[in-house]
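Here is the promised in-class demo. Please do not try to memorize the tokens; focus on the logic of going from shape to residues.
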């Protein structure tokens, strides 16, 4: 298991598969959208009912990702170094938008907590 840290910008804790943008534009099942950054044109195509959370390599409290996450009431962590080089599409994640933590392929003990 690997843990990455970033800036928490929208609270909540979720678990699910990663969907790396641009594939995230075609979300058909619930998942965590992962990207370098998200622009309004990229998020306009998202199936918002399937977005569990957002995680990006860049951004801050007033970034588009942060504002959208709060509007959709889903957790988000931004400014996560090495995010895209650490995650594979479909990888199981736990995203903690309260503490700014992202757990990649968590073990059973982490999932139970």
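The designed amino acids, position by position:
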């Amino acid at each position: 298991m690997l843990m990455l840290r970033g800036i928490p910008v929208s609270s909540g804790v979720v678990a699910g598969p990663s969907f790396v943008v641009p594939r995230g534009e075609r979300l058909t099942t619930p998942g965590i959208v992962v990207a370098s950054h998200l622009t309004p044109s990229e998020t306009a195509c998202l199936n918002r009912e399937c977005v569990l959370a957002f995680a990006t390599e860049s951004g801050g409290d007033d970034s588009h990702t942060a504002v959208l996450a709060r509007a959709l009431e889903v957790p988000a962590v931004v400014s996560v170094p090495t995010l895209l080089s650490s995650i594979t599409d479909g990888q199981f994640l736990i995203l903690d938008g309260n503490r700014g933590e992202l757990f990649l392929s968590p073990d059973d003990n982490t999932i139970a907590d």
